[in-house]
Amino acid sequence: ENGILLCDSIKPGLVKKINRLPTPIAGLDNLSVFLRGCEELGLKGSQLFDPGDLQDTSTRPTANRKLKNVLITIYWLGRAANGCTSYNGPTLDLKEFEGLLSQMRKVCKVT
C-alpha cells in the first residue's frame, strides 16, 4: 500500500529516494516512482497497474481486481528481469506465477 517494498525490490539504484513517511501521499509518491522505474526497464503503460489499485482495497470484488492488476505488473517486470542479461538478482518463476494469476482470475469471477 505504501510502495516501499516495491521500491526496495526493483533494480538497485533505479529508485533514488523512498518516501518513508506514513502518509497516503508518501505511498502514492513511492508507487509513482516504482511505476516510472518499470517504464525505464521497458514495461509499457498497458502493463502497469494504476497507483490507486493499492489504495482503498476495502471492498472485496474491487480489491481482487485491483490486486490482479498489481500482479500483472509484477509478472511483466519479472519477464523483463528474466530477459535482461545484465541482471543477476532473484528471478521470477514465470510458470508458477502464471498459475497464481490463473487462480486470481478464478477468484475474481467468483466474487
Short note summarizing the structure:
By secondary structure, the protein is an all-alpha fold. The chain has helices spanning 4-9, 24-40, 60-82, 94-110. The chain has one domain (4-108).
Topology, element by element:
Elements: H1 4-9, H2 24-40, H3 60-82, H4 94-110
Helix pairs in contact: 3-4
Overview of this protein structure:
This protein has one domain (4-108). It is built from four helices and no strands. It has helices at 4-9, 24-40, 60-82, 94-110. Helix 3 packs antiparallel against helix 4 (94-110). The relative contact order is 0.13.
What are the defining features of this structure?
111 residues, mainly alpha, CH_dom, CH_dom_sf, myosin II head/neck binding, Calponin-homology (CH) domain-containing protein
